[in-house]
Write a structure and sequence with these properties.
heterodimer; A: 316 residues; mainly alpha; 13 helices; globular; B: mainly alpha; Helix Hairpins; elongated
Amino acid sequence: MDALVPLFDALLGALLLWLAWQSIFAADLFRAVVSFMIFGLLMALAWVRLEAPDIALAEAAIGAGVTGALLLSALGRLPRERYAEAAQHILSHSYWLLFWAPVVLLAWFLWSLEAAPPSPPGLGEMVAIHQPAAGVDNPVTAVLLAFRALDTLLEIGVLLLGSLAIWSLGPSPWSTGPAMPSPALPAMARALFPAFVLVSVYLLWRGSHAPGGAFPAGAVMGAGGVLMLLAGARPWLTGGEQGPWRWLLTLGLGTMLVVASVTQFAGYVFFQYPSDWSGRLITLLELAAGLSIALLLFALYLGGQPPVRWRDRGWQ
Amino acid sequence: MTFYLLLATALFLMALYGVFASRHLLRRILALNVMSTAVFLWLVTVARAAPGLDPVPHAMVLTGIVVTVSTTAVAVVLVVRLRASHRRHDLP
């Protein structure tokens, strides 16, 4: 059994390199995007191999799923280029030396670093000591929402900022819907959507004691929303100023800020939870963040401000 | 784990070349994504040298993945808008 592990590593590494090469240098852009999506899925395998199941879940849902959907929909809106033009690279041969000299230097530096790896002290021990105080069993969730909750707050802030930037670029080009929806897609999407909801709720519930949590849950839910949109459903999310959607988009960030401020006024440090309430507060924050992340990823996919009222689709 | 460090280095260098050498902006976005994945791989692999499982780099990488998808979304929308308004998909 142990003899198979290096073989698996070598096969995985070779496939990852080949797919990365395809996604950067393939002549056809569609082929490049699909290669990138498969690259994300295989990276999830690599994360499992490196004993990082939380990252594997996030990579499969966000890296391969949501990013792939984004790139494919962008590709659909760009006119198809001639292959020769799309594959053109702009570095002429005289610049290669300028590029490759630092690259070789960097490679040598990384190689020497690898030969004598810096012995990392690691924070695993400290996390293990303080984890009972956090009130959750999964160390990654404890780090994300208790020890380094400020990072997570800023991360959701980045997501919100991204969708704000996209909304400010103009109306969503999606208001017309797919030109030729497959007749099987709406029925299949209707059948699959409950499974998406179930999986994301399960991941959210699991996050407190096992790999899972708000980010994979939100990503799965957002991907379900994208599937429904592609199947021709009219999304609930609208750009109206009076609707609840702007509040729901900011729900994650808002709840985190409220919790952080309230604990500060109650005599604790900013974002320090009272130890009796820690587990419950983390569950509350995960719920709010998961819902917000799902909607934010969906808003990112829309590629612009959604209209105040979605028009009816032809297939209905 | 040496193998995964070498893999991360190779992916990073390949993507770095792609970012500089590609003309099509969507290709550059793809290369940037591959590059960030290589950095994450490097980070988690190095963290495994520590005794025991270190969850802090895992949390950092999770944060990084979400930030990457946000920047990718904004960049992709900018490319689509650039194409619609200026009829081009590369930088002058």
